[in-house]
Amino acid sequence: MEAVSMKKFRDIMLISDGDGTLLNQSNQIPQKNIEALRYFMKQGGSFVLATGRPKNGARHIWEILPDHSMPTIYFNGALIYDPTQQAALHADVLPAGMHQVLQFLLDDFSEIGIECYTIDQAFVLQDSEITQMHIKMLHETPQYVSVKDIPETGILKMFVTGSHQETRAVQHSLLETFPNMFQAVPSGDVFLEIFSLQSDKGAAVRFLKQYYPQKKRFYAVGDNYNDFSMFREVEQAFVPENGVPKAKEIGRVVSSCDTGALFDVIQYLDALY
Question: Which pLDDT belongs to residue 4?
């Protein structure tokens, strides 16, 4: 990719999922992705990370990025945080009544892990081996609490961890018992993500379109079900080879997260513009 005199990507915003997309399966950003992003940003492009992770849990990813001036989408869109203002541009919390939901989970599913997150705090209500690995991956230092210790307001997201069979059973049971109260979306085989009905990555992209009217073209990269909503809001979606089959039916398939999916996307845009 050779630099050109005019900033060819000045009208473009590229939004990327984190795990399984920007990051490889070892939870690292391939160097070729970093170099491609540096070129993209130098040519005027704006890059936004859109992750299901909490703010603290994605800090080490954000710090590696070549530019830190753009907001980041956390919790699948429930939080849009601007590092330059050190403030939330948008926060969409789970509704009142989540204590009842949490108690229901404890009573009916003794083997799963249950995690709750506010903007700056992590709580573990029920521990599991997968939750322990998840907390370690996120570099979080959670509080281990009971239901009464979970804040009544301000919860942006919950994670349920367990086997594929367990998380799908929890999803079915929650949506049947608490209809139209929240979203419960699988992410990979062992995670179920619970967040506000109004929150998703697509809603976050719509917010950014209004917040940055100078950006005219939007592209997105993602590998899983929680990326579908942002695919609907952009000109072109891209999916790493390791993405779930339904995602690959929607977006243009690029190389896997291990071999530089973002590099491929930016190479495609470089040829296009």
Answer: 46
May I ask the CATH architecture of the domain 12-91+199-272?
A: 3-Layer(aba) Sandwich (3.40)
pLDDT digits (tens, 9 = 90+) for 59-70: 889 899 988 999
Q: Give the CATH number of domain 98-196; options: 3.90.650.10, 3.30.1240.10, 3.30.450.20, 2.60.120.810.
A: 3.30.1240.10
Q: How far apart are CA 142 and CA 204, in angstroms?
A: 26
Residue 106 CA, distance from chain mean position: 26
Instruction: From 32, 31, 71, 78, select the one nearest 52 (Cα to Cα).
Output: 78
d(CA 115, CA 53): 12
pLDDT single digits (tens) 92-109: 999 999 999 999 999 999
Task: Enter the pTM of the model.
Answer: 0.87
What residues contact residue 85 under an 8 Å CB cut-off, 6+ apart? none
Q: Of the candidates 204, 218, 174, 248, which has an alpha carbon nearest to the alpha carbon of residue 78?
A: 204
* Six token digits for residue 57: 């849990």
